[in-house]
Automatic annotation (TrEMBL):
Keywords: Membrane, Transmembrane, Transmembrane helix, Transport
Organism: Thalassolituus oleivorans MIL-1
Lineage start: Bacteria, Pseudomonadati, Pseudomonadota, Gammaproteobacteria, Oceanospirillales
Family membership noted in the UniProt record: Belongs to the multi antimicrobial extrusion (MATE) (TC 2.A.66.1) family.
Residues passing through the membrane, by range: 31-57, 77-98, 105-126, 132-156, 192-211, 217-240, 261-283, 303-321, 333-353, 359-384
Protein name per its UniProtKB record: MATE efflux family protein
InterPro entries in the cross-refs: DinF-like (IPR044644), MATE_fam (IPR002528), MATE_MdtK (IPR050222)
The keyword Transport is annotated on this UniProt entry: yes
Annotated localization: Membrane
Length: 391
């Protein structure tokens, strides 16, 4: 996401020749952060697995319970994806910043298709379990990264016809960027890291609390979280476009264009969210029964299906504002809003609603989504009224 902001603003600010140098320098700087982080994440995760696994499952289960054994197996295999995932994120953010959104579409679609096909083959034909699902994800991640790297080279060939940049030279990629050049990445990405870590912690806490209520509740919540990811992907298409367009408009110092983008992106995202809610309301029961072959799970899913119907409308504002502030490189505001929503709304609501068990957990999660948008509202109004402050 930090790569998107810096790429979009560099592309909007510079002339054509300078843009070629600027945007590839952004990519290089991002990679110089991504690969050391991949090594660091992998090492830290290996030490944290024994500490994290007891949080997922019934409190009376032992460390070697089947649930935790499968979880450990899955995590250990998935960690092999860390370099590919960070490379994939870097390339997706870079292409979104350029407005070349078809390439991220190709990358992510390829990753998910490969993942889904391999999951089916490994689990249903090779009788693998969580290890098969994990290997499918690993191979899908590396497939997307390879496709993205090929697209970078193709874009370079088309945009560098005057030979203003020697991308093929190892010197360009291996020469360490100066601190002044990489400092904006550190500034933006450490705030995004805290923001995203907080978001993932909320999801992890949500999953852990569901697991403590039994395997059926864990399965119900897993199905709805999967559908939430589907919702977020549908809305993120507009959010990613907002990131790119807002960043480029601010780079060009076009206040009028910023306001037009905010209006159009907001109305489009709200329309999509309404259509998703109508679709879930109309076809949700059929969809839920299609997602499981466990007859005991279907009544549980139906009991919580109202939460699914409203998810797009509750979450759309936070997704939209995320896109706006990523494009504006206002990551500190995003970080503060996420922390406030998690600490001041989600956790207190969860504690107060403990007597409602899983219903209370979902109401707390709804409050978290709404609070994220509420805490970013002041920044949005400032951008709407005074776009030049962000240029």
């Amino acid at each position: 996401m930090g790569t998107t902001a810096l790429t979009a603003q560099a592309y909007g600010r510079d002339t054509r020749t300078q843009a070629v140098n600027g945007i590839f320098s952004v990519l290089k700087n991002a990679l110089w952060l991504a690969f050391p982080l991949a090594l660091l994440i992998t090492v830290i995760a290996q030490f944290m697995i024994p500490w994290l696994l007891p949080l997922f499952g019934d409190a009376q289960q032992s460390y070697n319970s089947p649930l935790q054994t499968h979880a450990q197996q899955y995590i250990e295999i998935r960690l092999l994806s860390v370099p590919a995932v960070l490379l994939q994120y870097t390339l997706v953010g870079w292409f979104i910043g350029l407005g070349k959104t078809r390439i991220p579409l190709l990358m992510l679609t390829s990753a998910n298709v490969v993942n889904a096909l391999l999951d089916y083959f490994f689990v249903y034909h090779l009788n693998m379990t969580s290890d098969g699902v994990a290997w499918g994800s690993v191979i899908g991640d590396y497939s997307a990264s390879i496709i993205g790297a090929i697209c970078v080279w193709h874009y370079y060939q088309n945009s560098n016809k005057n030979n203003s940049l020697s991308l093929s030279s190892p010197v360009f990629w291996l020469k360490r960027p100066h601190w002044r050049v990489i400092a904006p990445f550190i500034h933006i990405n450490h705030q995004l890291f805290i923001r995203t870590l907080c978001l993932l912690s909320v999801f992890a806490f949500f999953t852990a609390q569901g697991a403590r209520q039994g395997e059926e509740i864990l399965a119900v919540n897993a199905v709805f979280i999967t559908l939430l990811l589907l919702i977020s992907n549908a809305l993120d298409g507009f959010a990613h476009a907002t990131e790119s367009l807002v960043g480029q408009a601010l780079g060009r110092a076009r206040a009028d264009l910023v306001k037009r983008i905010l209006w159009l992106s907001g109305t489009n995202m709200m329309t999509m969210a309404a259509l998703l809610s109508i679709g879930f309301f109309s076809f949700g029961p059929t969809l839920l029964t299609a997602l499981t072959n466990n007859p005991d799970l279907v009544p549980r899913l139906e009991a919580y299906q109202d939460f699914l119907f409203l998810l797009p409308l509750v979450g759309v504002a936070s997704y939209w504002l995320d896109g706006i502030f990523i494009g504006a490189a206002q990551t500190a505001l995003m970080r503060n809003a996420m922390l406030a929503a998690a600490l001041l709304v989600f956790l207190p609501l969860w504690w107060l609603l403990l007597p409602l068990s899983n219903y209370g957990l979902w109401l707390a999660f709804y409050g978290f989504l709404a609070a994220r948008a509420l805490f970013m509202l002041h920044g949005f109004l400032t951008l709407w009224r005074h776009p030049k402050k962000f240029m």
